[in-house]
Amino acid sequence: ERIDRELITAALAPVLEGALACGADAMSPGMVRVHISVAPDGRITKTRTVSAPSPELGECVARALGSATFAPTRLGGSFTYPVLF
To answer: Residue 17 and residue 50: Cα distance in Å, rounded?
Structure first.
């Protein structure tokens, strides 16, 4: 089994508020896209900001999303997640 939309939603829901808080003082609203790699055991092994209105906002969102924990899967996986401000 791979990481699917349901697993992504379930894992990121608890940390999404923290990611959105990153944009509270953002001078330039927009979309932050973060690429996330997840190991089969559910640990996030890497986050990388793909695009963001500012480097600081991208780093903050990537750090917040990177604190999530996924349910274990057989293969793990990776995906890009958008956060709109």
So the answer is: 20
Q: In degrees, to the nearest 5, what angle opens at C-alpha 63 toward C-alphas 60 and 68?
A: 135
CA atoms 17, 18, 22, 25: torsion sign: positive
* Of 52, 44, 40, the residue nearest 15 (C-alpha): 44
CA–CA gap between residue 56 and residue 43 (Å, rounded): 24
Per-residue model confidence (pLDDT) at position 29 = 76
Instruction: For 17-42, write each residue's pLDDT tens digit.
Output: 999 999 987 777 799 999 999 999 99
Q: Would the pTM of this model clear 0.90, i.e. be above it?
A: yes
* Two structure tokens written together for 23: 């944009």
- End-to-end alpha-carbon separation of the chain, Å? 32
**What is the identity of the amino acid at 50?**
V
Q: What is the mean pLDDT of the chain?
A: 94
